[in-house]
Amino acid sequence: MTRSFRPTRRHHTGxxxxxxxxxxxxxxxxxxxxxxxxRARSLxxxxxxxxxxxxxxxxSNLHLxxxxxxxxxxxxxxxxxxxxxxxxxxCHDDEHSRGILADYLAGK
Length: 108
Fold this sequence. Notes:
- By secondary structure, the protein is mainly alpha-helical.
- The relative contact order is 0.13.
- It is built from 2 helices and 2 strands, in the order H-E-E-H.
- Helices cover 41% and strands 9% of the residues.
- A two-stranded antiparallel ribbon has the order 1-2.
- It starts with 19 loop residues before the first helix and ends with a helix.
- The mean pLDDT is 86.
- It has one domain: His-Me finger endonuclease fold (3-Layer(aba) Sandwich).
């Protein structure tokens, strides 16, 4: 009898394959959990104040205080918070628009 090189059908008995939507949903949930974790730590370390304009925040407007990553890498979250700076939404937008303006003026 000759051996066939046709692939054999194997019945998969493991867990059901996940759809792309499930993968995206779990990735977004993990990213949100990671963000909330470093944001809570940054607020605890640095306080509820903007590092640029010194605006103080309370519970009613704390959602306007964001965490800026100094090196631009959102995955660089050292436990001591050395890569973070708490900025209000307005100062955070200003910080990121400076690079865009510099690139535009430099002709990039």
